[in-house]
């Protein structure tokens, strides 16, 4: 009986603390939003959505920004607990100039839910191949992936090497890794105890001062407040189950088998020296193992490179486009 009362009291304390933290977070979030001074509100850039059914029936949310120049098409893939809004700046910069496709990965953003058993990188690569078949049936393609999105591209190169150098003529890998990630990622090691504690503890932890946590582990020391706030807003949209379901992909990550074939496409690898999730040495390994890959190193930039160094990412994409068209 005493144990039951103690557990109930502890649970009640967590609920109360979570409620207070949520109220405080909401107040701070509102204040930070007012200070952003955005020309275009984050999360407002949209186009008519398409629903693409994955091979196992999961409905994938896809948006296409058409342009007078129909080819090549750039396909953007976001990372773990993100959504296609991570490409906010690139989408604005390239809109109307080139055809672009933005995919919410399964269980992320507006896409349908998958579960632990169908949340592997192999599932994501199958999804990407399906999107290419249905949304980009003709013409050359440039694939751009951040973090887990980059891993999805590497997995596709492993399972469908024939696509690279032919259909896929360009690749931009941003803040990502091909393997041995758990050994060198301080942020993932920090997350492990929360994952092991289970969903209730993780839910509480995510509500409690999430902005400071994301700023500390996801961005560089000189990151602008607006970029940390955008990352916080986006990541909090992802349900906690997404953390749980996709985490096993990183435990024994090994995507090296597809790197040589991926190199048949014009490839750029981008990484930040302050990235605690996918440390810069992973970008260097990728650049070494992908034939003729170009490496872009960003000093004091963290994991959220598409926000922190958005102009550099856009320029890298433009350079790849120029190379494959010349």
TrEMBL record:
Keywords: Hydrolase. One of its GO terms (cellular component) is membrane. InterPro entries: AB_hydrolase_1, AB_hydrolase_fold, AB_hydrolase_sf. It comes from the Bacteria. Gene3D superfamilies: alpha/beta hydrolase. One of its GO terms (molecular function) is hydrolase activity. The keyword Cell division does not apply. PANTHER family: AB HYDROLASE SUPERFAMILY PROTEIN YCLE, MONOACYLGLYCEROL LIPASE. This is Alpha/beta hydrolase.
């Amino acid at each position: 009986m005493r144990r039951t009362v103690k557990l109930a009291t502890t649970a009640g304390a967590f609920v109360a603390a979570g409620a207070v933290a949520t109220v405080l977070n909401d107040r701070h979030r509102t204040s930070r939003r007012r200070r952003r001074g955005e020309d275009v509100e984050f999360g407002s850039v949209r186009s008519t959505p398409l629903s693409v059914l994955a091979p196992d029936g999961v409905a994938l949310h896809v948006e296409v920004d058409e342009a007078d120049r129909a080819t090549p098409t750039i396909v953007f893939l976001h990372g773990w607990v993100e959504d296609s809004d991570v490409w906010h700046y690139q989408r604005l910069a390239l809109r109307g100039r080139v055809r672009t496709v933005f995919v919410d990965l399964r269980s992320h953003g507006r896409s349908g839910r998958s579960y632990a058993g169908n949340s592997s990188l192999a599932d994501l690569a199958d999804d990407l191949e399906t999107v290419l078949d249905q949304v980009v049936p003709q013409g050359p393609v440039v694939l751009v992936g951040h973090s887990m999105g980059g891993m999805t591209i590497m997995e596709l190169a492993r399972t469908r090497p024939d696509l690279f150098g032919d259909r896929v003529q360009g690749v931009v890998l941003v803040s990502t890794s091909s393997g041995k990630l758990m050994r060198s990622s301080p942020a993932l090691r920090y997350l492990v105890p929360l994952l092991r504690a289970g969903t209730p503890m993780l839910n509480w932890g995510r509500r409690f001062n999430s902005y400071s946590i994301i700023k500390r582990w996801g961005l560089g020391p000189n990151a602008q407040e607006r970029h940390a706030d955008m990352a916080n807003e986006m990541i909090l949209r992802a349900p906690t189950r997404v953390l749980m379901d996709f985490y096993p992909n990183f435990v024994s990550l090994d995507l090296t088998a597809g790197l040589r074939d991926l190199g048949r496409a014009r490839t750029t690898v981008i990484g930040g020296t302050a990235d605690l999730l996918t440390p810069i040495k992973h970008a260097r390994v990728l650049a070494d193992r992908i034939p003729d890959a170009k490496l872009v190193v960003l000093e004091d930039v963290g994991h959220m490179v598409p926000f922190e160094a958005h102009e550099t990412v856009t320029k890298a994409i433009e350079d790849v486009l120029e190379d494959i068209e010349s």
